């Protein structure tokens, strides 16, 4: 048996040297040192040996195992290092090649407008508040003095998900939710930016999705003159100190009285041109005093509290600011358009 073990050692070591890969070395290990290998078979036959031969054969078997295992580990390490060197050589990087430039992005024009408007109103003491885009019919309409059978609902064709859930048609629900949280105690002074949705045909001036910024101020002794002062301050800060506003009577279910707010045309200085349709004025937002019924439904005593609200379309302000003629440019993700708004 000792001679057989010596033969197996010589065969195994020779095959280890001839192996060209780690995979081939593993095959040699399994062949000679595995449970079904010849060395294991020799050890199984030791029961037939005499008591004197058994220790000698066992010792020789262990020596052969250790010799084969040691050489396997040595060759495996060498082949792994060689494979790594070849891989590094094939994947080498030429550090002299010019690098790829990293393009700088830019704020989307609508984002820029929202942030600028927010900053102006924060400077006047307003807080920025947000709410869900998927809204309940109750907060989107009923809490704003628009019960289910109110004819004014025909003014807004909505995206309903269920009979009681819809994509909000305005950011006014945020005002209703905020007033409700105050539990009838003022002041409430917020602006609410966000996306709104209405069923509309997309064209140069309309979109089924657009952005609004609405404002609300509720406190004791709030007057229409306060509304005019806030809007006049905002317009002069956003459009320039030489611009002025005018208020025209209008109707909104949640404000009474209600007004449309126009700003003097900056292109013709109020003299009349193509942009302002030769009127000298451009309509920019709607506003009014909060309807007493809206205050009451949100927990405020209309005899003690009053307030004003206003709402503006972000896209319209962006169109006026940047001289853009098609609202669809904001949503097509055309890099040629967006790259024009990179900061210098």
Automatic annotation (TrEMBL):
It catalyses: tRNA(Phe) + L-phenylalanine + ATP = L-phenylalanyl-tRNA(Phe) + AMP + diphosphate + H(+). SUPFAM superfamilies: Class II aaRS and biotin synthetases, tRNA-binding arm. The keyword Protease does not apply. Its cofactor is Mg(2+). It is found in: Cytoplasm. It is an enzyme of class 6 (ligase). InterPro entries: aa-tRNA-synth_II (IPR006195), aa-tRNA-synth_II/BPL/LPL (IPR045864), Phe-tRNA-synth_IIc_asu (IPR004529), Phe-tRNA_ligase_II_N (IPR004188), Phe_tRNA_ligase_alpha1_bac (IPR022911), Phenylalanyl-tRNA_Synthase (IPR002319), tRNA-bd_arm (IPR010978). PANTHER family: PHENYLALANINE--TRNA LIGASE, MITOCHONDRIAL, PHENYLALANYL-TRNA SYNTHETASE. NCBIfam families: pheS (TIGR00468). Tetramer of two alpha and two beta subunits. This is Phenylalanine--tRNA ligase alpha subunit. It comes from Thalassorhabdus alkalitolerans. The lineage of its organism: Bacteria, Bacillati, Bacillota, Bacilli, Bacillales.
């Amino acid at each position: 048996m000792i001679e057989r073990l010596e033969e197996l050692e010589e065969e195994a070591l020779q095959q280890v040297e001839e192996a060209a890969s780690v995979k081939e070395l593993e095959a040699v290990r399994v062949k000679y040192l595995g449970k079904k290998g010849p060395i294991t078979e020799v050890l199984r036959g030791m029961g037939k040996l005499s008591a004197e031969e058994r220790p000698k054969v066992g010792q020789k078997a262990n020596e052969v195992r250790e010799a084969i295992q040691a050489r396997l580990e040595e060759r495996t390490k060498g082949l792994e290092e060689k494979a790594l060197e070849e891989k590094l050589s094939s994947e080498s990087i030429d550090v002299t090649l010019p690098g790829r430039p990293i393009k700088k992005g830019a704020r989307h024009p609508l984002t820029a407008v929202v942030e600028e408007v927010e900053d102006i109103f924060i400077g006047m003491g307003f807080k920025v508040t947000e709410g869900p885009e998927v809204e309940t019919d109750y907060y989107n309409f009923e809490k704003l003095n628009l019960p289910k059978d109110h004819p004014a609902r025909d003014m807004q064709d909505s995206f309903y998900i269920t009979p009681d859930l819809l994509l909000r048609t305005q950011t006014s629900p945020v005002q209703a939710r905020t007033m409700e949280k105050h539990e009838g105690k003022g002041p409430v002074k917020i602006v609410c930016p966000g996306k709104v949705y209405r069923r509309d045909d997309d064209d140069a001036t309309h979109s089924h999705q657009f952005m609004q910024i609405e404002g609300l101020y509720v406190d004791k002794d709030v007057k229409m003159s306060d509304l005019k002062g806030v809007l006049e301050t905002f317009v002069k800060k956003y459009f320039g100190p030489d611009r002025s506003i005018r208020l025209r009577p209008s109707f909104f279910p949640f404000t009474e009285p209600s007004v449309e707010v126009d700003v003097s045309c900056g292109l013709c200085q109020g003299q009349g041109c193509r942009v302002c349709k030769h009127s000298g004025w451009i309509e920019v937002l709607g506003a009014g005093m909060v309807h007493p019924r809206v205050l009451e439904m949100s927990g405020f005593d209309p005899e003690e509290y009053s307030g004003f609200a206003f709402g503006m379309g972000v896209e319209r302000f962006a169109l006026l600011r940047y001289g853009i003629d098609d609202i669809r440019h904001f949503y097509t993700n055309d890099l040629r358009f967006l790259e024009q708004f990179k900061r210098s």
